[in-house]
Amino acid sequence: MTSHEAPQIHDFLDRGRFPLDDWRLVETYPRHEDLGVTETLFAVGNGYLGMRGNVVEGRDSHTHGTFINGFHETWPIQHAEEAFGFARVGQTIVNVPDAKIIRLYVDDEPLLLSIADLLEYERFLDFRSGVLQRDILWRTPSGKRVRVSTQRMVSFTQRHLAVMTFDVELLDESAPIAISSQVLNRQDGEDEYHVRSKAMGEGHDPRKSDTFSRRVLEPKYSWGSAADGRVVLGYRCVDSGMTLGVAADHLFETDNEWDQSVQVDDDLAKITYRVNAQPGKPIRLVKYVAYHTSRGVPPRELVDRCRRTLDRAKSEGLQRQFEAQRAWLDDFWARSDVEISGQPAVQQAVRWNLFQVAQAAARAEGQGIPAKGVTGSGYSGHYFWDTEIYVLPFLTYTSPQWARNALRFRYSLLDAARRRAREMSQRGALFPWRTINGEEASAYYAAGTAQYHIDADVAYALTQYLGATGDTDFLNRAGIDVLVETARMWVDLGFWRDEEEGTFHIHSVTGPDEYTTVVNDNLFTNVMARFNLQAAARAVRELAERDGDSYTRLVTRLKLDETEVEDWERAARDMAIPFDEHMGIHPQDQHFLEREVWDLDHTPLDQRPLLLNFHPLVIYRFQVIKQADVVLALYLQGDHFTAEQKRANFEYYDPITTGDSTLSGVVQSIIAAEVGYHDLALRYFLGALFVDLADRHRNASDGVHVASTGGVWSALVGGFGGFRDHNGVFTLDPRLPDGWEQLVFRLTLRGQRVRVTVRHDELELFLEEEGADADGVVVTPTIVVRGKEIEVPSGDPVIVPLDGQGPRLEGNPPPVAGRRRADGTVISAIVPGH
Ligand code: BGC
Known about the structure:
Number of strands: 32
Number of helices: 18
InterPro entries: 6-hairpin_glycosidase_sf, 6hp_glycosidase-like_sf, Gal_mutarotase_sf_dom, GH65_N, Glyco_hydro_65_C, Glyco_hydro_65_M, Glyco_hydro_65_N, Malt_Pase/Glycosyl_Hdrlase
CATH superfamily of the largest domain: Glycoside hydrolase, family 65, N-terminal domain
Protein name: Glycoside hydrolase family 65 protein
Number of domains: 4
Binding site for substrate: 385-386, 626-627
Region (Disordered): 796-819
CATH architecture of the largest domain: Distorted Sandwich
Shape: globular
Distance between the termini: 21 Å
Strand order of the largest sheet: 1-8-9-10-11-18-15-14-13
CATH class of the largest domain: Mainly Beta
Active site: 514 (proton donor)
Bound molecules: beta-D-glucopyranose
């Protein structure tokens, strides 16, 4: 296999260690070598609060991690050479005090997983109960057998709440036992034994988080009472001023003799239970934990909120929490499950991925969806276009309320985006490439700020959401402002050249491919900007017709001038779309084809990914792609390309795409499927499916690749299911992989849930749950299947016969080197430095 090809089909996981299970990720023995990866894989979270899968004992770890979405510290970005408009405010998610820790001592010997004699071990994350559980049988150094079972759950129904249980039972002889439950502020990774977390010694990697050498959390409040079983801590971030309260409540149950003590200081609050334990007399500790955060509410008040959360949780009881979690997840799976019969490994991994999207997005409310969700500090907890292009499709068609929340969050950044546009000498609004608080945080502008396409990505996701839900209220109150301000940005950024011929150009921007930066007329940017301009014009014109009052308010609010809308339409119509007649492809940008190609086949594997081994300039000099760019345009704007163009473009770009970003594989899978490379599509899909599960990019320890997990859904539904939504017209043109019996997925269209079953010779559409759109209107779902309009009324399923699964191309696209450019020169392949 050459380095840039999609991986071969095989099972990526060691099934002796991670056995097949439809609804759980199970680990049958722990390994120290990949602790960081399993901490990510077994993380629990709800989009607000996330806890890595650290062992409950708190010692053995790669990275201790508890994260709260949006809870960040700021710092001044020091550029070696300053320039006007460079990002100034660094923003880094804070690793908050760790409430996961419950240490166990038997005969004064600590349970330490890495050295313990474990007679039995099993750990699993259950996607239906939403609980992480570990069961072990430990033989202590003096030979006593102790059963220890622990559970950890971050509640989906109460987003500030986490619940843990800790059960211990001696099987043979009596022994003194101590259980120490803690809330520990580790100060950015360093543990209480002053061991720097393993992750901190791993050298520079731009995909990791920035770390602090100073104190980040100033202690503001601490309190504890052994009798109440409650401890409380409050903090304030030194620079961002954000505040945090954390509290833990304990319920201790046993028939053994026991007592308890409490210790609280600035960075540690703990309750210790000492027990004279007898065999056959079980011990149970239940720990409820609450976190509240704010931009500035005093920590004392947050602590009060924590108390209220805990009082309620405790009075409801443990069982109720588990039941609520289960019911919540039952609903989630009813709306969102994708079933692949006869493919247990795929099935399990698909569910793990979809579960991750829920963990990243469900309760993000008021915040964005970080690139790593709340499972790690990778990319410093920032929000990127990942949300709109990779995560929102899944949410829009399965959990539209969450999509709305994410879009509302973007809307809340509109003022900051307006200011940023001014700073960048532009009208309208320019959303930051990466941010937490709305300010641009990408210090490297060429692969950051220059990605103006973020504006169009937001407009795109918004338009899809509006089309799929009919949420005109959201459009009128928020969405339309985003459309107008982004359209204004494009028309101001671009310019007309050759007035008579009238082409509209956009110069000096970067497309999604970060291996080619600051270019003129990036194809992806131009087609997406065109979409953005058209969508804004349409929305404004429709509003004027539909709702005169809202339109008048809009005109006043945004000082909108009629002629502006005409300008947007004209710019969209005249948009320069680079096309090379000779090669029959769309160049990625105006000068892309002039470069030689990077010879990926002869690049040693130890020099991958390129971004960690070559200076950016070296990379920029070549036709070599980090991630799908033109190919992504073929997917998102597929109605603007012919089938021949799609195939020719895919065949050109696929061999020069490294896939060094995990945002690539899912898109390559979708277009490979569409144009007919069925095997390749499946290989790309499987590669993406196991990105984290098999640590294929060797950085799963930094957190889940959330864009890829969302992309897995897009690859299933958009790639194999062949689902597209262009301007509110829903179409299906399936490409079921050869070895799969059938593929089942759900789409919620205007509040009606349609179950789609793809088989080799037919498609079945069934209205699984009836409903109304956001305005209360009942719209019978209509889906165009290979050109034929099919209505899906309630009642019996509709069966549509299928004549095969689309075109079929074998193998991989041919190499690019050796092809001739329009000017007759031959494209050569080079490995820099060789
Ligand atoms: C990709 C970006 C992405 C970011 C965060 C980068 O490696 O090139 O497209 O937004 O990761 O996931």
